[in-house]
Amino acid sequence: MSDQSTARQTIAVAPPADVRRIDTESDARDLAHRVLTPGRRRWPVVVLTISAGQQEPFGDPHEVKDAVGDLAEVVLMPTSDVSWAFSREMPPGTQVYGGAGRVYPLDHGWVADPARSRLRFAYSPQDRRRITDQLIHDALEAALTAGLLEPRTNPRLQQRSGTVQGVIGSRALVRLDDSSMATVWEELTVPGVALERLLGRGQRVTGVYDPVSRRLDLREALLLTDPSIAWAAVAEAYQIGDVVLADVAQVSDDAVSLRLLPDVVVDVERDAVTSNANDTLRGLFTPGEIVTCRVADNDPLRLRLDDVDDEEAPKSAPSLLPGGPPWLCLPEPEPQPSTTPAARPTSPVPSLSPVPDPPRRRPTPLDVDPRGRIPLPRPVALPSMDGAPSGADEPAVIQLRNELAAERATREALARDLAGLRGRAAELEDELAHANRVIEQLQTRYRGADLARQRAVKQLRSAQSRNEHALGIDGPAFLDAEEQFRFEVYCEWVRRIPAAEKASKPLAEYLLGSGFLESVEQLEGISRAKIVAVVVEVLTDQVQHLAGRDVHQLRAGGAGGPYLRRADGATCWRVALQRDAPAARRLHYWRIPDGYEFSRVTVHDDYRP
């Protein structure tokens, strides 16, 4: 291997001290390979692009570099063949061009999940402050996550105290005790937690002060950041039955992960969220949303979301800094929109009609391009330099000047179109942010309505239980197991089917297979009441219309095998008691000529009839 190759593969110990500009396709490809290859770098990389036709970026790369220092590399790249060369090397959804910017964290999780490397848009110089702050935030957050912000020995750092004057976005202003001002940066506190959830006006704080950057680092003062201490604090502060606040860390089809503290995450299974088989957890929750839940157990810690009344006030969440606000608070309701239609924004919108002349411009004869879009000046004879016709060269000069005028008109029209598109993109971003807030509120309202429904069902069952007790039925109504099961099926049918529908939804005739009741007793992870409810759905033919039940004929050996059929012509069927898990419970039954025969209850991967 040559010395040059060896030097090229050497990993630098610190990022470049200045903004690095990428001007060649070769350098762009090398940047992509270095960003994508694990071990090729030791810091996040900030890539800011220059929009096509612009000389400078809309964001400020030098301000980004000043803010991140030696914690990240800052790269500037034009939108041209250079950025296309970079994009061709990058996985789908991770490219950057057109004036946008992106931070590539040290952890390569963003390769599979591009949302972990957020694309920051800019459309004009007016976006300079916004995209610059966003890239600084993303870079410092990536550095903090990578462990690059551990306290360092530096003689200029000082231990200082002061009072918080206010929180503005991701920055807090602190008046130090000597009356000088310092700032607290959100990125240098707790990853994923807004600064307003840590600090409040008038709060006293103590941290490590850097007189050069005027930043006050409060990480040494943070409370409950050690996972073992945090779990112990939660167990001590919250008792079984308490209603508490949590934020949504992650949502899947089967569970929602809730954070009681930044390092205390509890997975809540679907059965503890909703009993509605048609609900999807991804449709009920949004990551980052703050919700109320109940502590069901504390050894181990378990939470429920399906039995919290709207009237119950949650316990106050702990603070993450001494004297700070609760780190979780329910958001204020979004103001309801006015019933009067709002006027549409007046920003320019691209038009497909011919572009008119700018105001105050003296009108000139125009021809219209055959595509109906770009106005082209009519050919006009132009004088030669000495005022006389130029003979044979005159047509060529006229043609050249007309083409130049047409090119200028085209550029002007495209510039107006681009300005309109950028304005519309900014409007759409605002509308999307508003829509996301509305979705969160609708999710909260829906969960409240669903909890009310579940409470009504519990009250109805409680009333039924009281009625049975009044009739002297205390415990099993029958000694015979089959008679008891049939009694429960009948009671569920009476409770579930309205009086007006009982004639049209009678209980069909049915048999219980020899091993059915034994399987009901032995199968764990599913309540007997749920099995009885699904049996009623089968006997009333409701199961055919419930998407969550996934009723279908059973095949020998699973998918691809022949349908199971007995010698008497009965066909075997399977219906879901639970969804979306390898051990999800299933009910097997036979369709017989005059009704049903229930075979057994089992798990998803068991295909025996």
Can you tell me about this structure?
With 609 residues, the chain is an alpha+beta fold. The protein has five domains: 136 residues, 3-Layer(aba) Sandwich (Glutaredoxin), CATH 3.40.30.10; 64 residues, OB fold (Dihydrolipoamide Acetyltransferase, E2P), CATH 2.40.50; 78 residues, Nucleic acid-binding proteins (OB fold (Dihydrolipoamide Acetyltransferase, E2P)); 123 residues; 123 residues, RelE-like (YaeB-like fold, 2-Layer Sandwich), CATH 3.30.2310.20. The chain is 30% helix and 20% strand. It is built from twelve helices and 22 strands. The longest helix is centred in the last third of the chain and has 77 residues. It starts with a helix and ends in a 6-residue tail after the last strand.
Instruction: Please state the overall shape, judged from the principal axes of the Cα atoms.
Output: globular
Helix content: 25-40%
Distance between the termini: 65 Å
- How would you sum up the major sheet? 5 strands, mixed
Q: What percent strand?
A: 15-25%
Name the CATH class of the largest domain. Alpha Beta
User: What's the CATH topology name of the largest domain?
Assistant: Glutaredoxin
- Total individual domains: 5
DSSP strand tally: 22
